C-alpha cells in the first residue's frame, strides 16, 4: 500500500478537539492499513515523531429511510499520539 493513501482525512469532532490538547490527533485511515503504516504515513506527511497509534474499527449500521434499508459505511480511525514537543499544525488559526 502506498504511504500517501493510508491517511484519508483528519476527523474534526468535539472529542478529537479535546484530544488535540493532549498531543493526540484523530485520522480516518484506509480500512486495510495497520499501525506501522499509519505511523510511517503521519511521520512522513507532517514531519513529526509518533509515539503511539491506537486503531478503532466502527462497523456500518443498518438505517431505515422510509421503506428503504441502508447500511452506513464502515469507518476505521487512528488516534495518533505524538512525542512531547511535536505538534501538527494543520488546524492552527481556524
Strand order of the largest sheet: 1-2-6-3
Q: From the helix content, strand content and strand pairing, which structural class follows?
A: alpha+beta
Spans where pLDDT lies below 50 across 5 or more residues: none
Give the overall pLDDT as a whole number.
Answer: 92
| Principal-axes shape call | globular
Strand content: 35-45%
Cα-based radius of gyration, to the nearest Å: 15 Å
Outline the structure in words.
It is a single chain. The protein is an alpha+beta fold. The chain has one domain: Alpha-Beta Plaits (2-Layer Sandwich). Helix content is 20%, strand content 37%. The chain has two helices and six strands. It has helices at residues 14-20, 35-46; strands spanning 7-10, 24-29, 50-58, 62-65, 68-71, 75-82. The chain is globular, with a radius of gyration of 15 Å.
Keywords summarizing the entry:
94 residues, alpha+beta, Alpha-Beta Plaits, globular
Secondary structure elements and their pairing?
Elements (H helix, E strand, L loop, with lengths): L6 E4 L3 H7 L3 E6 L5 H12 L3 E9 L3 E4 L2 E4 L3 E8 L12
Antiparallel strand pairs: 1-2, 2-6, 3-6, 4-5
Give a short summary of the structure.
With 94 residues, this protein is of the alpha+beta class.
